[in-house]
Specification:
Order of helices and strands: HHHHHHHH
Number of strands: 0
Low-confidence stretches: none
Largest sheet: none
Strand content: under 5%
Distance between the termini: 35 Å
Mean pLDDT: 88
Helix content: over 70%
Structural class: mainly alpha
Shape: globular
Number of helices: 8
Oligomer: single chain
Radius of gyration: 21 Å
Length: 178
């Protein structure tokens, strides 16, 4: 079974690309020209969103480097223990809405320190898969089209993240115990 999956995975992406090219050709689409036009639009969008991304990454760096993260963890530990969130996972919960790269780094640190089969590792992994990089997504998508008023989207995104975190805590407590 593993050999079959490896073989299929080797051919999946080339087959998908071939399918797109053949389908576009059959439909009469100038595939190469359309691709180049899309790439040009992508570069234009990338240049428009760079200031938003730089601002977000600087803010994240300041928050971590200043020691504010450690202070927040120390202050909130009693509440976190009460709701079933290991305090060690709080940096992931704080960073996840802001940066996928930073939260992936935090997850890797947690998995290395506590192991993937520990309660902390399982909880962190479940939270990582149940939440989204809200601020990054808003800055990229809204920044690229010039939307400035994001209050309802931000509120809905943060509420969805909170629901994802609470669901993760519930599932981990039920399946893995504490």
């Amino acid at each position: 079974m593993v050999a079959v999956l490896k073989t299929v995975s080797v051919f999946t992406i080339p087959a998908f690309i071939a399918f797109i090219l053949i389908y576009g050709h059959i439909r009469g689409v100038a595939v190469y020209e359309t691709f180049v036009e899309g790439a040009k639009d992508g570069l234009t969008t990338a240049f428009r969103i760079i200031p938003y991304l730089v601002a977000m990454f600087v803010a994240i760096g300041i928050f971590r480097s200043s020691g504010a993260m450690g202070f927040v963890i120390k202050v909130l530990s009693p509440v976190l223990n009460f709701i079933g969130l290991p305090p060690e996972v709080l940096p992931l919960v704080i960073m996840r809405p802001m940066s996928g790269a930073a939260s992936t780094g935090i997850l890797a640190e947690l998995l290395q320190a506590y192991g993937p089969d520990s309660y902390i590792g399982r909880t962190a992994s479940t939270i990582m898969g149940s939440t989204e990089t809200i601020f990054y997504t808003l800055s990229v998508y809204y920044g690229s089209v010039g939307v400035r008023n994001i209050r309802y989207t931000l509120a809905a995104g943060l509420l969805a993240d909170a629901a994802g975190i609470l669901a993760s805590l519930t599932v981990c407590a039920l399946f893995f115990g504490r």
